[in-house]
Amino acid sequence: MSHARVEEVFDSDSASDSDPSIDDPTTFSAPPSLIRPSRIPPPTNNLPSHIQPQSVAPPNTTSDPSAHKHYACIYPLYLDASRTHSQGRRVSASRAVSNPLARTIVDAVAALGLKTVFEPGKMHPKDWGNPGRVRVLLKTPEGRTVNKEIKNKHHLYIHISTYLQAHPTTAQSPLRLRIAGMPMPETPPPEPAVPRG
Question: What's the pLDDT at 43?
Answer without folding.
Answer: 56
